[in-house]
Structures
1.
Amino acid sequence: MLGRFFKRDEPLDGDTQIVDLRYDRILLGATMILMGIGVVMVYSASVVTAKNETTFLYKQITYCAFAFVAMGVLANLHHSIIKRFAWPLFIGAFILLSCVLVPGLAIEAKGAVRWIGHGSIRFQPSEAIKLGWIILLAAFLSERQDQLHRWKRSWMTPTIIVGIISALLLIQKDLGSTVICVGLLILMIFAAGAQVRHLVAAVGAGILAICGFILLEPYRVRRLMSFLEPERYRQGDAWQLYQALIGFGSGDWTGLGLGLSNQKMAFLPEAHTDFIFSILGEELGLVGVAVVVCLFAVFAWRGFHIARRANTVFGALLAYGLTALICFQAIANMAVATGMLPTKGLTLPFISYGGSSMVIMGVAVGILLNISKREPPPEWLHGWVIDRAPVSEDPEPSAEGAQ
């Protein structure tokens, strides 16, 4: 079974393998432009609330530098190595997520305990668990291409694991990351080629579970009500959403001008993190919003294109999952800022302030760039590689994938 997102090139003669050793320059360009916009907008959005007007600017530049280093390393590290360490990477991320429950390591902020660290050095493990979860799913599903029609073989183990992850995330009051992890499971099994009836059942169960999670917490119910009636709750739970919408309305077509936002003057909380998209809309207008949306659309186009042209099943699933993570989180953040989804604490990839998200996204892009090269594993790695290229169901002979 090839799955829904794999594409085989034209058959080649003999054992000849055509290899494109160049990175996907369009994907890299879109990422760099988004990071550049992020640095400018973080500086603009935080200049009022920061103790020093350049504090967040310098930190964001530092985070981008770390992200570029991670991107460069992963872009030149063959992704087959990542498959060999899928379980250790996931277990490491899971241990970090569990450390949030350890007194002394955990850091509480605004009623939620989602960070570990000491003093100003913080890390959000939920960002790492998303990446580890995608790698584990890609490795697991790539080895079960012929068993995806059997629920126990394809769904049971990932379902148990995502249930444990969700429990830890919900203890941290992080419903947004929980939804992303469950959504990634459904999307990646769909991409791998699971049966539609299994997918429909999973989506239905996921919706019921989300509804249950919302009803179990009074603050989530209040957020839902404020989302449905923001005008009524504008002095309470809908304050952020209401101020964000004012920002978009003030921006009109071309915006008030870079640095001239009124909402960042302590009206809109989290102006440089969760709601930076609203500040961007206020200062740069619909034109600026359209540019960012188009850049994410380009990123999605190139990411899924890389997945379709990958020369191994694992590479294809990994590229699909990483692209889905970044684009899904971007859509969710923009939807929250524009009032199309209830308020959730999800950053806008590459643009929102934050080191954990920026570095993990840099790692994700680096892996995508490596897969885009379609480079066979180096000779010293041949004994480790156990993944095969997608095999065509066409009776005609096809090129043999990387071994």
Note: Residues 31-378 form one domain.
2.
Amino acid sequence: MGAVETDLLPCEVLSPPDRSKFLGGSDAAAVMGLSPWATPVELWNQKTGRAPKEEPDVVRQRMLERGHKLEPFIRDMTITKLQDMGLQVELIAVNQRYTDAEHPFLACEIDFELRLTGQVEIGGEMYELQREHINADAKSVSGFARKKWGETDSEDVPIEYAAQFMHGLGVTGRRMCLVAALRSFDDVDIFWTLRDDETVAAMREKMVRFWVDHVLGDTPPDPIEFSDIKLLFPMDNGQPVEATAEIADKVRQLADIKSRIKDFEEAEEALTFEIADFISPNALLTFEGKEIASWKGQGHSSFRAKDFKEAHPALCAEFTKQQTVRVLRLKKGKK
């Protein structure tokens, strides 16, 4: 199978891009309900301008900046590795943005694009490439995130990234996306996402529907998490609503679960007390010569909010945010 090309429309260069005007690769997983970062309701909230402007997350911003700075390093290592595998490699473009020819509100940015000639193995199957133009994405992977990636030279990438790459293949019309995962500074691991026309069509339909029905139609998608309901209905109307038999039963189930949690917490506290009382004043607890628990002193710091408020009332007021919070409480009584 050769490369599939369409009439691509390079995006207008925006710095930074106004993400309220389109659905990009990082939005694809959210629309599909697969994103660990945003639900469809949260994404709708952002695209329609309802999300309040928040202070930038300095830690996340620094992580993104580090990842961006690593992209040239990952790209060069990837090209070298592909050449060592016997492929002819040509770098075509870097950080090019595209819009879909039919639906300009669907867009993607490709980290880098390559033209490959030679053979590659993907999931145990060999693919022959003849000057094939492919998408490529650079990812730096660390910590617990490593466990979400499977065997190299396969399509076993985290599902949220797979949605992003498949969206990119849908917009660009290409067959393959190479994924270069930097898991150490000695080498990059190569993964792939192969275009699946059925998946592309299903994703495309859902993303078009999301944009037209929800963003342009200004109608929220169905909530999938409790946080979505709180986001959609931050204020109550003060009125009661009659429960169905099914909902009344769920209330009883929730009350029972909360009661069990309380029992477990009380049991936990009692056991903790008895074990700590036995250990005191020692640091370690052993059984048959092996350590089974410890209770060691360690440094701890905390912010004394009450003292700060008394010492600096004006400054405290300046950085105090008032908001309404809805809390789901169950009526105490007979189950």
Note: The CA atoms of residues 199 and 205 lie 10 Å apart.
3.
Amino acid sequence: MNTKDFNHKITVTVRFHEVDMLGVCNNAVYINYFEHARLEYVKAAGLIPPGGIFSDGKLFFMVRNEINYRDHAFYDDELEVYSRISYIKNSSFGFDHIIVKKKSGQTIVDGKGVVVYVDPKTRKSSPLPDYFIEKVKTIDPSVQILRE
């Protein structure tokens, strides 16, 4: 993955409570950075309902996280978190992420995640609405549509 293939980016700073006694960012914290970036992505795409998050009863469940550790971040490092939706299937979609040190451009981690749209009554996967695809295309025009 290359950061040039991403149209969405946020910046985070490694905080004191996110590091160990050597000042190294704990490995689990990167999943939190991914989650924060995903939320900012859906805001940017206009996918938050007018009444605010959770106000429309729609359910999206994270069903997979994958992460590759390439280097370490340390206390007070500024990190750029790049995110994109790379594909959309019938009821699921995939996020890709890259986190780099802002100062050096060094890749710290990369990863992927899968999110499933779930019917709130049956708690089973449900087809993503067409408006979801159209809004994702505003940020990621090259998203792969893999619907059957």
Note: Residues 3-145 form a domain with the Thiol Ester Dehydrase; Chain A fold (CATH 3.10.129.10).
4.
Amino acid sequence: MSTATEETLSPADAEAFRTKVREFLAQNATGSDRGVNSIETGRAFQQKLAAAGLAGLTYATEYGGAGLTKGHERIYREEYAKFPDMTYELVISHGMCLPVLNQFGTEEQKRQFMPDNIAGRTMWCQMFSEPGAGSDVASLQTKAELDGDEWVLNGQKVWTTLAHVCEYGVIIARTNPEAPKHAGISMFIIDMKAPGVEIRPIHQIDGGKHFNEIFLTDVRIPKSWLLGELNNGWNQATAMLMFERVAIGTGSTSGVTHTLADGLIEVAKKNGKISDPVVRQDLMKLYSEETTKSLVAMRTRAEMKAGKVPGPGGSLGKLHGSRISWMMRPLISRLVGPETDAWEGESSRGEAWSKRLLNSFQSGIAGGTDEIQKNIIGDRVLGLPREPMVDKDMPFKDLKVGTQR
């Protein structure tokens, strides 16, 4: 294992690494059309990143990482902020599934799965939500039963992002219906191409198909693909959700950024609306909110740099992102105008802003709704009294949830 300590990153080493990153990005971070080719573009970029020794910077070398420090990662993020985001499609695979594999996986699992994940040779999805278990994920009904040396999975998942292009997934399923709902859940690795896995794309309002519903019928996976402890899946899922909210709330870069406000300011300058005092005020509010989100993200990253596992504070960044979406929608409509509804030609300004506007609605749902984030912040950050849970100690089989009604 080759892992540098924070102290070994001298000013000279830091500058040499920054130069290496800057040169790599200048040559390879050429932009993505955020369209049908964006996934393959991201994976190809990630493979080049791995070949250059710049992928999985803080993960151990024996698991496919670079074995470097948080200082190296900070430098990379600072430089990456100056270039187009090439790997936004890998946010679940790298921001959520990878750290969970690293934290809870066995030695065998880490060596088998992490190198290909880090290099972008495989993509991973997260399979939590179900038709009867959205915000209350612990009410899930998908079950896993041990049959000899294999687990047999049956059930349904929904809103699974990019499942149709992923090779593997991290899934939670019920393994003990006699226990209370939070206590009888386990986490598994699943092959998305396995027999019995049926993936149906969900067609979105913007024409995309990022989300999916998944039907599992007698899907068999090796016994060794239990991820973490049996019946401790809820605690592991909570950790994964923390990673998710950090990934969504902090993004792929470091430092203070306000790219959305910058883009709308440019639009306002070009169409002459920048002199409108109401427009200027709203743009400044958006600029301030993006700046605040960046500062919260920097604090979260600093805590992780100090060795802390992401905590409930990650919900702050997630909620900021949703607030930004709420603020930007009327601004886009006001500044871009009718072009967001009808445009001519491909890849026009109106089409790009229209997709951004329509996609923004998911920010208040993905990774937990705004209401859930506020509950987490109130309970675990501010220390306010928790809401009563009348089903806390009841066996799951006795609950009237989902199809058990």
Note: Residues 1-7 have pLDDT under 50 and may be disordered.
